[in-house]
């Protein structure tokens, strides 16, 4: 305290000068219309700029929560959309699924916390596990397309086999051509896959959408995989040589949705019974 008083005593002339300057400035602004308006406009401009910077900083710090909220909302919308698609699929028009079948897909939002794209066999790690109802074999999709399937889980984390994996295959359908084939990554470009087993007599259009087909138990049908980029012919083979641009950007994955087909076990059980009788 004594040091404070000593400092004030030593700097009393300077402090008095500053106070007089402030008092003079106050009288000038309040007694002169021109300077009053100038001060008002200038102070408002700087205050607005400071407020804009403050809002920008606040928005940036809230981006994580905003992204999480959007992912949660997208999850609800996707669940509703999938239900509608299952209740009334494209054909035949007379078909209508019962409520159990229509609600068989359940989605869980998860955040990607690790991801590889440059290896021959790539994986992701997500922040949900068995405590959240996840188990191996579940499909994983992004807001823009398919991602992979759950390989292993512990209580709070899961490792996902990416579609950028040498042994990952997914049943795929060309929307315009209405033909089913197999999508597979050939291990080179993380933005492209190959579409196999499409007969050459089937006309295929560039940019035709490639989606998950009905012939799998992991993904809901109609999930986008990509679009046809190139059309060629396999040598001495009756199939097209098709390359597709992936719809999912694996270099920028943030949130994903884990797909639980709640009737998968029943479907696989009855199919295994048929296979064992052959």
From TrEMBL:
All residue ranges annotated as the Rod shape-determining protein MreC beta-barrel core domain in the record: 112-259
InterPro entries named among the record's database cross-references: Cell/Rod_1, Cell/Rod_MreC_2, MreC, MreC_beta-barrel_core
Gene Ontology BP, a term: regulation of cell shape
Gene Ontology CC: one annotated term: plasma membrane
Residue stretches spanning the membrane: 12-29
Similarity annotation: Belongs to the MreC family.
Protein name per its UniProtKB record: Cell shape-determining protein MreC
């Amino acid at each position: 305290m004594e040091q404070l008083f000593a400092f004030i005593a030593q700097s009393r002339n300077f402090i008095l000068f500053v106070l007089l300057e402030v008092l003079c400035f106050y009288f000038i602004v309040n007694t002169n219309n021109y300077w009053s308006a100038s001060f008002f406009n200038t102070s408002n401009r700087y205050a607005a700029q400071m407020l804009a910077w403050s809002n920008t900083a606040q928005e940036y710090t809230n981006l994580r929560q905003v992204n999480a909220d959007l992912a949660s909302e997208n999850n609800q919308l996707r669940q509703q959309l999938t239900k509608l698609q299952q209740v009334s699929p494209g054909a035949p028009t007379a078909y209508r699924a019962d409520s159990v079948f229509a609600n068989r897909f359940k989605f869980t939002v998860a955040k990607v916390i690790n991801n590889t794209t440059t290896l021959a066999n790539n994986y992701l790690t997500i922040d949900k596990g068995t405590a959240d109802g996840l188990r191996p074999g579940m499909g994983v999709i992004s807001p823009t397309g398919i991602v992979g399937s759950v390989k292993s889980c512990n209580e709070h984390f899961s490792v996902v086999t990416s579609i950028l994996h040498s042994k990952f295959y997914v049943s795929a359908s060309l929307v315009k051509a209405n033909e089913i084939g197999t999508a597979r990554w050939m291990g080179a470009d993380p933005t492209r896959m190959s579409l196999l087993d499409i007969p050459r007599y089937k006309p295929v259009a560039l940019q035709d959408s490639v989606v998950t087909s009905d012939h799998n138990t992991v993904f809901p049908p109609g999930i986008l995989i990509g679009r046809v980029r190139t059309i060629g012919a396999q040598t001495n083979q009756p199939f097209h040589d098709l390359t597709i641009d992936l719809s999912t950007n694996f270099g920028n994955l943030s949130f994903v949705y884990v797909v639980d087909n709640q009737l998968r076990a029943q479907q696989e059980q009855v199919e295994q019974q048929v296979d064992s009788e052959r």
